[in-house]
Model the fold of this input.
Amino acid sequence: STLFPYTTLFRSAEFPDTLIGRKCGDEIAHESARRAQAVLEADWPAGELAARRMTEFDAWLRADENRRNPGTTADLVAACLFTALRERWIDAPEVFMTPLDHREPK
Done:
Protein backbone atom coordinates (compact mmCIF):
# COMPACT_ATOMS: atom_id res chain seq x y z
CA SER A 1 0.00 0.00 0.00
CA THR A 2 1.15 3.52 -0.71
CA LEU A 3 -0.95 5.12 2.03
CA PHE A 4 1.85 5.60 4.58
CA PRO A 5 4.51 6.85 2.13
CA TYR A 6 2.05 9.13 0.31
CA THR A 7 0.77 10.61 3.56
CA THR A 8 4.34 11.13 4.74
CA LEU A 9 5.34 12.80 1.48
CA PHE A 10 2.27 15.04 1.49
CA ARG A 11 2.81 16.09 5.11
CA SER A 12 6.55 16.56 4.52
CA ALA A 13 5.96 18.76 1.50
CA GLU A 14 3.52 21.00 3.38
CA PHE A 15 5.35 21.28 6.71
CA PRO A 16 9.14 21.00 7.06
CA ASP A 17 10.00 18.33 9.61
CA THR A 18 10.87 19.82 13.00
CA LEU A 19 13.30 17.02 13.92
CA ILE A 20 15.28 17.73 10.76
CA GLY A 21 15.09 21.42 11.68
CA ARG A 22 16.44 20.80 15.18
CA LYS A 23 19.25 18.54 14.00
CA CYS A 24 20.24 20.26 10.75
CA GLY A 25 18.68 23.72 10.74
CA ASP A 26 15.67 25.31 9.06
CA GLU A 27 17.33 25.53 5.64
CA ILE A 28 17.79 21.75 5.46
CA ALA A 29 14.25 21.17 6.78
CA HIS A 30 12.88 23.38 4.00
CA GLU A 31 15.07 21.57 1.46
CA SER A 32 13.51 18.31 2.64
CA ALA A 33 10.04 19.78 2.06
CA ARG A 34 11.05 20.92 -1.45
CA ARG A 35 12.35 17.45 -2.27
CA ALA A 36 9.17 15.79 -1.00
CA GLN A 37 7.13 18.19 -3.14
CA ALA A 38 9.25 17.30 -6.19
CA VAL A 39 8.42 13.61 -5.67
CA LEU A 40 4.69 14.40 -5.49
CA GLU A 41 4.86 16.66 -8.55
CA ALA A 42 6.35 13.75 -10.50
CA ASP A 43 3.01 11.97 -9.94
CA TRP A 44 4.32 9.55 -7.34
CA PRO A 45 3.91 6.54 -7.19
CA ALA A 46 3.36 6.31 -10.96
CA GLY A 47 6.10 6.48 -13.50
CA GLU A 48 9.84 6.35 -13.90
CA LEU A 49 10.47 10.01 -12.98
CA ALA A 50 8.55 9.61 -9.72
CA ALA A 51 10.47 6.45 -8.84
CA ARG A 52 13.79 8.17 -9.57
CA ARG A 53 12.87 11.23 -7.49
CA MET A 54 11.72 9.03 -4.61
CA THR A 55 14.97 7.05 -4.71
CA GLU A 56 16.99 10.27 -4.78
CA PHE A 57 14.95 11.74 -1.92
CA ASP A 58 15.38 8.59 0.14
CA ALA A 59 19.15 8.59 -0.47
CA TRP A 60 19.35 12.28 0.47
CA LEU A 61 17.45 11.65 3.72
CA ARG A 62 19.75 8.74 4.63
CA ALA A 63 22.97 10.59 3.81
CA ASP A 64 24.82 12.50 6.51
CA GLU A 65 24.51 9.58 8.93
CA ASN A 66 20.68 9.71 8.86
CA ARG A 67 20.62 13.17 10.46
CA ARG A 68 17.88 14.14 7.99
CA ASN A 69 15.50 11.52 9.38
CA PRO A 70 11.96 13.00 9.25
CA GLY A 71 11.10 11.53 12.65
CA THR A 72 8.49 14.08 13.69
CA THR A 73 6.59 13.57 10.44
CA ALA A 74 6.82 9.79 10.75
CA ASP A 75 5.50 9.90 14.32
CA LEU A 76 2.55 12.12 13.35
CA VAL A 77 1.63 10.05 10.31
CA ALA A 78 1.89 6.78 12.24
CA ALA A 79 -0.33 8.15 15.02
CA CYS A 80 -2.91 9.42 12.54
CA LEU A 81 -2.99 6.16 10.59
CA PHE A 82 -3.22 4.15 13.82
CA THR A 83 -6.20 6.26 14.92
CA ALA A 84 -7.85 5.96 11.51
CA LEU A 85 -7.43 2.17 11.58
CA ARG A 86 -8.53 1.87 15.21
CA GLU A 87 -11.65 3.93 14.59
CA ARG A 88 -12.28 2.02 11.33
CA TRP A 89 -12.19 5.22 9.25
CA ILE A 90 -9.92 3.34 6.83
CA ASP A 91 -9.42 -0.36 6.14
CA ALA A 92 -6.15 -2.11 6.86
CA PRO A 93 -4.26 -3.50 3.86
CA GLU A 94 -4.96 -7.19 3.32
CA VAL A 95 -1.50 -8.24 4.52
CA PHE A 96 -2.38 -7.01 8.02
CA MET A 97 -5.69 -8.87 8.02
CA THR A 98 -4.12 -12.32 7.58
CA PRO A 99 -3.43 -14.23 10.81
CA LEU A 100 0.27 -14.89 11.27
CA ASP A 101 -0.19 -18.66 11.51
CA HIS A 102 -1.78 -18.78 8.02
CA ARG A 103 1.00 -16.99 6.14
CA GLU A 104 3.15 -18.78 3.65
CA PRO A 105 6.67 -19.55 4.95
CA LYS A 106 9.44 -17.50 3.32
